[in-house]
Amino acid sequence: MLITFEGIDGAGKSTQIKKLVTFLTGENREVLTLREPGGTEVAEKIRQILLESRHEISPIGELLLFSASRAELIQEVIVPALAVGKTVILDRFFDSTTAYQGYGRGIDLHLLQSIISISTCGIVPDITFYLDIEPEEALKRKFSKTSIPLSFENEELDRMERSGTEFYQNVRKGYLELISLNKDRFVSINALQPETVIHHQILAFLKERFPA
Q: What long-range pairs does 190-194 form, CB within 8 A, spacing at least 24?
């Protein structure tokens, strides 16, 4: 089974992934957790370029770098893991590309989907949890324990996070559009709820869709 988590940074994906892994391992399931971009030696190097670079990267260049990282992860790790029956939990997948590079950067969606289809080798998540939060609220969480001014242009953020408020508003709109088009796969959850409440909602959805 392939489970993916989506949402802008600050939505609480990492926290919920950890809680779900703890539950599933307690049920004696073999679980593999991964993140995008990353997960292989090559993909981690691409991650450094995409997130830590202070250089500008064109939208198409960004798309191709994300796709290259994903292709490596799919072929080297995800396909073999699924083949032996592991539960794979992925922090971001191709929906992030559609939301960020398509709706956020403005890349043509038809072009984008053709590139995604090549990089994913036809792999589609069994279920995708989207943690919904307004960009401004996500930013507040990012700096909740610091005195750093709230701004998407702040140098403390990574290259993607510095893309600006309008960019993140468009990304969120993209996610909401994806959910409306893929209702059988997506589960949208209000990320402002308490962590425990969200965790129990995730478990309830999993048990409802996959009783076994």
A: 190/132, 191/7, 191/11, 191/12, 191/131, 191/132, 191/133, 192/133, 192/137
Euclidean distance between CA atoms 107 and 59, whole angstroms: 7
SS3 assignment, position 2: strand
Percentage of residues in the chain with pLDDT exceeding 90? 81
Give CA 28 to chain center in angstroms. 25
Q: How many other C-beta atoms are found inside a 10 Å radius of the C-beta of residue 61?
A: 12
Say if residues 137 and 10 touch (Cβ distance below 8 Å).
yes
**Which residues have CB under 8 Å from 207's CB, separation 6+?**
none
Burial of 212 (0-12, 13-18, 19+ CB in 10 A): exposed
Structure tokens at 164: 């600006």
Q: Give the strand order in the sheet containing 127-132.
A: 31-35, 87-91, 2-6, 127-132, 186-190
Residues 100-145 pLDDT 10s: 999 999 999 999 999 999 999 999 999 999 999 999 898 888 766 5
Structural domains of the chain sorted by starting position, each given as residue range(s) with its CATH number in brackets? 2-209 (3.40.50.300)
Based on its alpha-carbon atoms, the radius of gyration of the chain, rounded to whole angstroms, reads: 17
Residue 52 to residues 89, 94, 167: CA-CA distances in angstroms?
24, 21, 19
**What average pLDDT does range 35-47 have in this prediction?**
94
